[in-house]
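2024-03-11 09:14:02 DEBUG pipeline.ingest accepted 1 chain
2024-03-11 09:14:02 DEBUG pipeline.ingest length=394
2024-03-11 09:14:03 DEBUG pipeline.predict start
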Amino acid sequence: MNDFPAPELVTDNDRLAQLCERWQTLSSLALDTEFIRVSTFYPRAGLIQVGDGDDCYLLDPLSINVWQPFIDILMAEDIVKIMHSCSEDLVVFKYFYDCLPGPIFDTQKAAAFLGHGYSISYLNLVRLFAGVELSKGETRSDWLKRPLSANQIKYAALDVAYLPRLYQELSAALEREGKSEYLREECERMRQITLAAENPDTWPDLYLSMGAAWRLNARQLGALRDLSLWRERVSRQRDKPRSWIARDADLIVLAQKLPADRQELSQVPDLNRNIYQQDADALLAIVQNSEPVSEAIASNLEGAPMSQPQRAMLKRCQQAVRSVAEQTGIAEELLARKKQLITLMHLNRHATPVADGDGVLQWPDELSGWQRALLAAPLSPIIAGNTPPQDAAP
């Protein structure tokens, strides 16, 4: 396994506790997970990989049942957790341990701040910084099957073996370029997104992000809101993917048609068969008992086709973001994606033009402090300094 000793497979509670006592003395620790999430809502953890810069350890969640020492490690504020493209790993940690590791250093995000592209793979990053070719090997492996094969063990260990070295290289480069705080903000936002996904208080607003929601009136939107909320709850209760319960298209058409009984429901085309077989009564009750959303919400949804002036404004915004990306070396998609720019335009569509072509913008939550600091100057003249675009007619 290149320059690394053979990994240790940890299956014993006492051994994990011993390792955690040692890890508590470290300033950083590499983490990764292997999981299965094909037919379930929540991931099934198959392995937790840990690298300390010298050795690699594979923690077996099918054998270990006393995790508190490791949870203490995950929560230790003085130990940086090094991961690569960790959004799915965070879901594993939240579900399996009911906590999130922090602080995080995501090497993919760090690379995006340093001119290496928005979503560089771990393999390519290792090749770039360590000159080592890693194999994709066991990408689609069954991590819940025991015993693990020699190839699985090697593959899993290599996923954390080089993370400490990447951390040293990337963190030093971020410090040199004054971007360390940018990464800290971005990694903390990833944690908050994971927490929000499991916060029931956020579920009633999920319908607002459905692409076709703008086509619906206030009564239909009320039905869509309640149908979407029902799906969030049922997906978790049954531990099944959302699309297995009902697709977005199913919820949209149910909100459009507002069926009053099973006969009308049967005339709605192409619905998920579970809707007929298992959930018909529940969904009919939701549709009939839902209350309209306010007209303020109904008239303020994103998603309608853009007018020509809006498209022209979007293009100018994208050009401005591209210019900032070229100047800073930060990946354009990390600065602001197209959808985020559209949201920014939507929030400021009634802005009053100002004489000097500048103004104070309303910013979407998806664009954090570091992004606003870099983008406010180039985007404000485009959005607040021009005649606000007219909303396209539905």
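2024-03-11 09:14:41 DEBUG pipeline.report The mean pLDDT is 92.
2024-03-11 09:14:41 DEBUG pipeline.predict end
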